[in-house]
Every structure is written in C-alpha cells, then in structure tokens.
Amino acid sequence: MEIFHYFCFKVCVAFTFFSLVFASDPYSEALLSLKSELIDDDNSLEDWLVPHGVNSSVEVHACSWSGVKCNKDSTVVVGLDLSLKNLGGILSGEQFNVFTELVDLNLSYNSLSGQLPVHLFNLSNLRSFDISRNNFSGQFPDGVFGLQKLVVLDAFSNSFSGPLPVDFSKLEFLKVLNLAGSYFSGPIPSEYGTFKSLEFVHLAGNSLSGNIPPELGKLKTVSHMEIGYNSYHGGIPWQLGNMSELEYLDIAGANLSGTIPKQLSNLTKLHSLFLFRNQLTGSVPDEFSELLSLLSLDLSDNRLSGPIPDSFAELKNLRLLSLMYNEMNGTVPRGIAMLPALETLLIWNNFFSGSLPEDLGKNSKLNWVDVSTNNFVGSIPLDICAGGVLFKLMLFSNNFTGSLSPSISNCSSLVRLRIEDNSFSGEIPLKFDKLPGITYVDLSNNKFTGGIPSDLPHASSLQYFNVSHNPGLGGVIPEQLWSLPLLQNFSASDCNISGNFPATGSCNSVSVIELRMNNLAGNVPTSISRCSSLAKMDLANNQFTGNIPEEIAGLTELSVLDLSHNNFTGPLSAKFGDFSRLKLLNVSFNNISGSIPSNNLFKLMGKSAYEGNPNLCGAPLRPCSTSMAIFGGRGIWKLIWVLLLCSGVVVFLVASTLGIFYIRREGKGQWNMISFNGLPRFTANDVLKSFSSTETIPAGSPPSASTSKVVLPTGITVSMKKIELEGKGIKTVSEFVTQLGYARHKNLVRVLGFCHNKLVGYLLYDYSSNGNLAEKNSMKKDWTVKYKLIVGIARGLCFLHHECSPAIPHGDLKSSSILFDENMEVHLAEFGFKYLAEMAKSSSSETFSIREAGELNTSLKEELYADIYSFGEIILEVLTNGRLTNAGETVQNKPLEVILREVFADNEVSSTNSMKEEIRLVVEVAVRCTRSRPSERPSMEETVKLLSWSKSQRNQTELMKPNQYT
C-alpha cells in the first residue's frame, strides 16, 4: 500500500510539473527539468513553481526563484547559485544548453554524484564554475576548453579519478584552479607551467605521483600554490624559485626527498612555506634569511640536520617556526629570541643542546613554546611569559635543572604546562589561584620538594595533574582536591606523601587516582563511591588500614584497582565480582581474611593478586575448609538465606511465565511490522512465531535485551535485539528506526526491520557469522589485515556522521559491537541504539524532533566527538592486539616516540620495515582522535582522509598540519 501511495504521489508531481512547463519560458522549463533530477530532502527549491495562467513570453518567471540571478530586464538568466542546499542526485546536464549567457554557476556544498555532465562545457560565457564539496566521480570529462572565458574553476573535495586534464592549461583567463581532495592520479602535466593568468592552484590531497615538473617555475602570475599530500618522486625543483609572485607554497606530506633548494630564497614575496612531513635531508639553507616577508615556516617531520641558521635573526616578520621531528642539533641562536613577531616555536624531538636564549619571550608575544625531547640544560628563561599570552609551555624530556621560576605563576594565560622528565628542584612555586585557565600540569620525574601546593583546589579548570616520581616532595594531599569540577587525572605516586586520603565530595569527573608508593595511612573513605567515573585507582605500597570499602564495588566504570602492599583487614566482598569492566584487581600483601568469592572474575586475576594474605583462602589460593568454602564461615545463616533466595527465584519465574503468557495473549493483533530492503514482506506474527527458534532463549519466549540469533519463517537467519517502549513515544522511535533502516553502507550491519507493539519492540539485523572484534583482538594479524580493519571501521563511522541527515552518532562504539561477516569484512553493529533506547524511555517526541531540527547542535557534536574518541581507542586496541584497551588518556600522557616503540614491538616491526611509516601515521591518527579537548579531534571525514595517506598504494589527502599538535 505504501508503494502504491508513493507511485501515485510521483505521478501527480510529474503531471503538475509538465502542466507548469507547458506554460513556461525556456529558462523556467529548463530549471524545472533540473529540479526533477535533484533529490531535495530539505525542500530548498520549493519556490521553483510557475503559477497557472502565467504567460512568460517576455520576462523569465524563474528570475524570482531562490538561487537564480537574471539581468536587469529579467529576460536572461546570468547566474545560478544552488550551494548549501543539501541537494543530491545525478545530473544529465542537458538543461544547461539553454543558459548561453550564464556567467556564474555554483553547485558547491551538496551531495551531487555521478560523472560531471559534459553539457556544462557548452556554457561559453561562464566565468565562475564551483562544484566543490560534492561527490562527482570518474574521470574529469574532456571538453573543458569550451569554457574559454572561465576565470574560476573550483572542484575541491570530490571523487574524481584518472589523470589531471591537460586542457585546463589552454584556458587563457583562468586565475583559480582548485582540483584538491579527489583521487586524481599520475603526474602533474608539464603543460601546467604554461598558464598565462593563473594566480591560485590547489592540487593537494590526491593520488598524484611522478616528479614535480620544473616547468611550474614558469608560472610568473601564481601567488598561491598547494600541491602537497600526494606521493611524488624526487625532490623540489629549484626552478620553483623563479615564481616571482609566489606568496604561499605548500608541498607538505608529499614524499619529497633530497635537499631544500636554496633558490627558494628568491621568493621574496613568500609569507608561508610548508614543507613538513617529507623526507628532506641536509641543512636548512642560510639563504632563507632573505625571505623577509616570511610569516610561517614549517619544515617539521623531515630528516633535516645541522643547526638553526644564525641568519634567521633577520626574519623580523616570522610568527611560526616549526622544525620539530628532525635530526637537527646545535644551540638555539640568541637571535631567535629577538624576533619581535614570533608567536610559536616548535623544535621538539631533535638533538638541540645548550641553554635556551635567556631573552626568549622578552621581545615578542609567545603563545606556544615546545622544545621537548632534546638535550637542553639550564633553567627556564625568566621572561618566557612576558608577553602575557603564553598558553602552552612544553619542556619535557630534557636536562633542565634549578628551581622553577616564580614568574610562571604570573602567566595567567597558561593552559598547558609539561616539564616532566627533567631535574627541576626546590619547591613548586605555582600559584594556582593565578592560573585560572590551566587544564594540564605534568611535573613528574623531577626533584621537587615542599609538597603539593595547598591552593591546587583553586585551579577550577584543571583536568590533569601529575607530580609522580618526585621522591622528596613530601607533604599531604590538599583537603578540597576532589572538589575540582573538571579534574580527571590525579597522579602523585612515589612522592613520600603522608597523612590520610581526603574525603571525596562531588568528584564525578575523576577517572584516574594514582597514589602508590607513599606513606598514606588510615581508612579509605566510603565517600569514594561519589567518584562515579573512576576507572583506575592505584593505592599500592602505602599504610592504609581497615576494611576495603564495599562502596568501591559500586563504581561501575572501574577497570583497575590496586590495593596491594597495605594493611587492609576483613573479608573480600563478593560485590567486587559484579564489576563489568574490572580487568585488574590486586589485594596482595595485606591482612585480608576469609574466602575468595567464587565469581569467575576473582579467578581470572590469578594467584599473584591475593598472595601475602595468610588468612585468605579459596581458588586460586589454597582450598578453604568445607564450611568456609561454601558459606564463608557463617554456614547456617547463609544456608537459610540461600534457601529463601531460591524460593524467591522460583516464585519470580512462575510469575514471569504467567506474565509473558498474558502479555502475548492480550497483545495479539496489536503488533506492527516495519520492513526495509533485505527482509521479505511478512507479518509481525511471523516474526513472533520465530521466537521458538531463538538460540539464546527458552522456546516460545521473546528474546532478552541482549542480541539473539533468530531463524525467520522463510529460513533467513537474523540477529534480534529487544527494546522496552513507552506507548507515547512509539512514533518517535519508529521515525528514528526508519532513519536507521535507510542507513546503508558496506561497513554497517543492516537494520532489516522493526516488530513492535506499544510496550516492546524487536530490531532485526543482518546476522554476522564470524564473531566480533573483542573475540579476535588477541589473534595475531598482519599489518595489512589491521589496516583494512581500521579503515573499514572509519568508513562506517564516517558514513553515519557525514552522509546521514541528520547525523547518527553510534553512541556505543566498542570492540564487541564491531562484527565480521562470512568474508571477514568489518561491520558496525548497534549504531544509534543508545539513542533509540533513550527515546523509548521518553514520553514525548522531543528528543528526535529537536535533533532533526538541528536545535541540539551542541549536544549532537558532543556525541559525535565521543564516537571519534572511541574510534581512537579502537585503533590502539587493534594495533596492540588487545593489549591497550580504553587507552585514550594513556597515550595523551606519553611521548609519541614511546607509544610508537611499543606499537612497533607489538607488530614486530624492525627499524627498516617498509610498513613503519604507515603504522606511525595510524598511531598519530589515534592520538589525535583521543585528544582531551573534543574540538581538537579531527572529524571522521578528516580521519578517513588521514588514514588514506600512504607513500605508494593508498590515496593521499589533506592532513592536519603538525603545528596543530598538542
């Protein structure tokens, strides 16, 4: 019936369309024909209508339509702007033969697909042609030479493939050529050096190869050139130094080798030079000091050696200097500190030595300084924050000594301070009430004394604080510490801290507490139960006493609990066995007594988790006596409780059976069925009958909330998931399920149907026969398999985020929700189910309708960012064969090189392995996806492009520049 109604609607639309066209002018007729080819879900072209009885023989009726621009007399259409209208479909292009006077055509920011119509090249008067951010595919068609008056051609971010069209070079008036972000392959044609008027050329993010043609040096009119994020051979042609008007040059991420040509110093108008992420060698040319207009110089992530040229003191306009990730050495010239415009200095991960210039920060408004992982000595320059805008100061992994300058406390702009792995000493002089924006502080592995500053609880924005491995620190934990509203990580292990564990107030955000190897004593407060987000608590090697609080067992997010080497007494509560996430429990070397509960979780921890407790027994330790083993020493009372419990269970089962029978009987005839492509048309009763074949449930009973395998009457095997419904919200749920049903992608598990009444619903999915990622993570896989797996997950998530309207957050991305089909292709399961469950609990349709209307943009973005974070953690889990789980925060607190060494070891990658650079890239993607600040994470669209970059086989596209690293 629905199909019949849809067919009738289409017939009516077509009839109305042809009726209107009959009375219309040629322009309006052509545009209405174009409208009929477009998918317009937002109805953005609703005003494209011709009223009945209108004679448009003189004026063009379409001149009043949105996006249509006409001449002054409204007799000729000269412009068509359909950008940002969420239009889809495949264009024939035949309608454009009418628009002989069209000057501007803008189809950007839509979802148009298929091949670009060759008819568009008949628009001989066209000057601006913008088809950017669509999904046009195939080779760029021949015939562009017909656009002889064209000035702007923007085809950025499509899916074009094949070679770059040579004919573009014949467009005499072309000033802007943007072909970036597609899949063009092969070399840049040497003919591209013959453009006569070109000013802007952007070819980055394709699959281009071959040598960069030296003929590009003949482009005397080009001021902006981006040709990076491809996979070229050879080096940078010295002839590019002849591009006398060039102001912006970006050839980053392009597999370039050899030295940097000194002839680039002839580009006296150049203000931005980006050559990062290549394999360039040799030293930085001294002649670069002649680039007096230079604002940004990024040569990071290469193999450059030698010192920073002293002549760089001449670059008075330089704002950004990024030389990180190279093999450079020597000292930082004093002239760098004299540059009046310098804002960002990134030279980390090199072999620099000596002291930092004592005037660094005195003569400019520094906002970001990162000199970490070098061999610097001495102290922090006193005036490093004199400009008042320094927000990131990264000095970790050097050989700095002396006390920390009190001037750092006057740096009210500071957000991130990392000085770990040095030899700083003396008291910590930070005044946290003067650092209102500080979010991240790492002082670990130094020689600080004098205790943790007592005003630490005044740092209202603080998220991460680490002062571990300062063995002479001493002092106590500040009393109001846990009241910090945003605190997530507090680490103070091996600091000789004494006193008690402070009572916790509202500590909902705290996820990590590390206090091992101190002198803390007394009881662990029961108020710890308020830390609802706590995932790791390490209190080992202290002097805590009393019972282990049962309240800890209520922390459902806890995955690591180490209480070893203390003086805890009393029994070990069986409630700890209820943890769903607990992966490590260690209570060894205490005075715990009684029996170890028989729950499987306790057995999984191994003997070492319990040894050193003489009065503790049970598996995996020595067997307990009979009464202890069964009832833990209170035999008769526990027996009574067991008997009562069993009686209660029997009564419950009988009542449940009768209840289910009653609901099934009373609900008969009230069931509805929504089917999508892939599921044969049959009734809800057919689905209900299949409950008897459900593998994971008793015959004749509906499935539980967990996913079940069901064989339908036609013999098709599906997965079924139950959801409890509220009668008033069924419309909302059905609408959202329909959206899920139409979300089809090769890396998503298909939603096949939805069977429901007013109280309960069953979602039907494709059945995946080869298990999930959680089951296979520990299996050894080669790099190719891991890469394919990661990219498949990314593409499925990208489809949900960027190709569904509105976007669908997955909501619960984890290894157990990533399934494999019979061909071991990866599929994301249960996407959107979390939000479906939330809607089902709601008594109104607010949740879905508001999300659809876009009024919850902030909330939706947060949900999408959470998916991206989970994806980053999944990458780490795959790369380490399951060793690293929920490790997003862990990798943010480690130098990248340390993480890479671990991942290389997990994948048995040698220093000469050809896969090393690819693995490095994927690790960097994981690090970016798990950044603590959501706005710093790449979108899934950007992430897919990042993962597509490779030296030889995989598509290259725009990466986030290294100067955006945290």
From TrEMBL:
GO terms for molecular function: ATP binding; protein kinase activity; receptor serine/threonine kinase binding. Belongs to the RLP family. It is a single-pass type I membrane protein. Its main location: membrane. Residues 1-23 form the signal peptide. Residues 691-950 form the Protein kinase domain. Gene3D superfamilies: Phosphorylase Kinase, domain 1 (3.30.200.20), Ribonuclease Inhibitor (3.80.10.10), Transferase(Phosphotransferase) domain 1 (1.10.510.10). This is Protein kinase domain-containing protein. The chain crosses the membrane at residues 639-663. Keywords: Glycoprotein, Leucine-rich repeat, Membrane, Repeat, Signal, Transmembrane, Transmembrane helix. GO terms for cellular component: membrane. The keyword Transmembrane applies. It holds the Pfam family LRR_8. It comes from Erythroxylum novogranatense. It is found in: Membrane. GO terms for biological process: post-embryonic development.
